Amino acid sequence: MTQEPIIPIDRVSDLASIETLAKAARDCVDTCYDRMETQKNQCKFGKSGICCRICHMGPCKITKRSPKGVCGADADTIVARNYLREVVGGSAAHSDHGRHLVLRLKKVAQGNGGGYEIKDEKALRRAAKDYKVESAGKSKEEIALDLANLFLDEFMRQEDPLVTLSLAPLKQQSCWRKNNIEPFGVDRMIVESMHRTTMGVDHHYENLLLQSFRTALSDGWGGSRIAMIVSDILFGTPYPVKSDANLGVLGENTVNILVHGHEPELSEMLAVVARDPELIAYAKDAGAEGITLAGICCTANEILMRHGIPIAGSFLQQELAIITGAVEIMIIDVQCCMPSLPEVAAAYHTEIISTTDMAKTSGATHLAFDSDDAISSAKDLIKRAVDNYKNRDPSKVAIPKAQSPVIGGFSVDAIKYILGGTFRASFRPLNDAIIAGRIKGVVGIVGCNNPKAKTDAYMNILTKELIRQNVLVLKTGCAAVASAKEGMMLPETALSDAGEGLREVCEAVGMPPVLHMGSCVDNSRILEAAAEIVKEGGLGDDISQLPAVGVAPEWMSEKAVAIGTYFVASGIDVILGQPFSIEGSENVKTFLNEKTRELFGASFHDCEDPYQATAKILEILDEARKNLGINKKQERKLYDMKDRRELNV
Ligand code: SF4
Ligand code: MSK
């Protein structure tokens, strides 16, 4: 433990985390908050992006006395190269996730899906239409096979732009063409970017940054978009579903199983088999009242959206969940799973189980999940959890009571349906509300938590301020979990917290003012929504004209860097709660924070304070509204019979 004890209330916002962080101190268990203290004096060279360890003449760092690395690289080159490598890391993570799902879809189409099936034929046919895959007279398996092959080609495409780019508005596509940043195959982009950032290749900061936008587009309009489409085909397009969020969802007397990570293949199967009466009986025989399956991080968002499985917590609650002393097993796969988990678990009876050969953790039990025999693999994991229930030590258990109801599952399809009903499902009512000024604009708040800041504080203040100002908020990732825990993802929140115009719209259709749109890869749903709003008409013909902003308040992952970069390349301004590691180059800063506006109609903005961020967002939205000529709030006209007759419809 550190010398200075940390004060939970200064570090975390919600009651469940405050209680459990205090318990961690009593149990003498270190968490990331303690380790943040011991890492306090973080390297200023790394932080400003001017540390280079790309070759072994270095590591080199840029200072006033040594303005160039051994090879002659200056701060601009080094900062831009590091930035591109971060985008590569993030894009690779999302896109590899997408690839795994496409390979599963292919197996399903070939009749050896290992217990998986095409759950949403409508989503399959919708995708076939979008990608111009011939479907007339074909079985769903035949369509799925053609689609899977096309998607695999999106990863391998060597000399042509991604087909998936065609899902963007035409003006966006021509902007990318004009700036020469249309990505080719996802794998090609990632390999090329790694090549370009190796010693002695691409040294011009602008060229490197343009490649960052190109690579990020291969994620947002490529790998992530494909991951989202295939998830919907295999597991179902999300529709609103009610559940609960926060550590309080763990059961006092049930076998508690946590799924943590990102890829939905395993968690989907666990969500299905956890309801198996035989397994529930097995748990009861072990003395438990039943089985509680809950999620952490983005896996939580995936299974909330499709099954209503509760969210136990976000990224920074992964250790806290174990510290409740009530978790039998935590099943991890890829991304955002801390290597500290087995050490924390060692203080309790929890078993950490890693499930994929590409992601092993020292101290965890490795049981590779066999997705070709998914049902029995999932059942084995649940039985293992039940068998561990007897080892729970009641004296170490303290499950906080705090949890909040949440409605998740707002796919673009679901939003259209909510707005327009079965026969008129469309974004028209939203566009009209924006044009009339009842809704000022739309803001996507996305990304992680980071122990550098008080967990969830920025996100919650910002979200409240925005809905009060009649801004519709879309959320994904751990940002979505923050609002879920705060009880903001409920229609009732519109009545109590939203401004008058937003409240009217939400009340009329029964939707929350803060919409849960899924996991990190589901940021592509936000792009899909933006493209739909443009298509619906009346708000310009390009995403950059929309009154829309993206925010990553407490980001920590390379994935967030990739997301922010593809948002800006798509014409959406992005507010960062902490700056990128680019402070060491004025040229890189100017390019990302100003020059991109000329190229894409959007740029990055640093706002370390949520109130400053609110003001900046309102300024951007107002500017967009002014440019569209919709900056004056229109009176809501209530038609009487005479008016209706004159309407002549
Ligand atoms: Fe130093 Fe250049 Fe090697 Fe980077 S690439 S470590 S700046 S010599
Ligand atoms: S899980 S990437 S901490 S959002 Fe997607 Fe949360 Fe960020 Fe991981």
Give an overview in words.
The protein has 649 residues and is α/β, with parallel strands linked by helices. It folds into three domains: 75-235, Up-down Bundle (Substrate Binding Domain Of Dnak, Chain:A, Domain 2), CATH 1.20.1270; 247-396, Rossmann fold, CATH 3.40.50; 410-628, Rossmann fold. 49% of the residues lie in helices and 10% in strands. It contains 27 helices and 16 strands. The strands form four sheets. A six-stranded parallel beta sheet has the order 6-5-4-7-8-9. The longest helix is centred in the N-terminal third of the chain and has 35 residues, at 75-109. The mean pLDDT is 95. Iron/sulfur cluster binds at residues 52-55, 57-60, 69-71, 73, 78, 199.
CATH class of the largest domain: Alpha Beta
Quickly count the domains.
Answer: 3
Query: Whole-number radius of gyration?
Result: 24 Å
Indicate the proportion of strand residues: 5-15%
Break the fold down into its secondary structure elements and pairings:
Blueprint: H1 8-11, H2 15-26, H3 32-38, H4 44-47, E1 51-52, E2 60-61, H5 75-109, H6 121-130, H7 140-156, H8 170-178, H9 186-196, H10 205-235, E3 241-245, E4 255-260, H11 264-273, H12 277-285, E5 291-296, H13 297-307, E6 311-313, H14 318-323, E7 329-332, H15 341-345, E8 351-354, E9 365-366, H16 374-389, E10 404-408, H17 412-420, H18 428-436, E11 441-445, H19 457-468, E12 471-475, H20 477-485, H21 491-497, H22 500-509, E13 514-516, H23 523-536, E14 548-552, H24 558-569, E15 573-576, H25 586-600, E16 604-606, H26 610-628, H27 641-647
Parallel strand pairs: 4-5, 4-7, 5-6, 7-8, 8-9, 11-12, 11-14, 12-13, 14-15, 15-16
Antiparallel strand pairs: 1-2, 3-10
Helix pairs in contact: 5-7, 5-9, 5-10, 5-24, 6-7, 6-10, 9-10, 10-23, 10-24, 11-13, 11-16, 19-26, 21-22
Iron/sulfur cluster is lined by residues 52-55, 57-60, 69-71, 73, 78, 199.
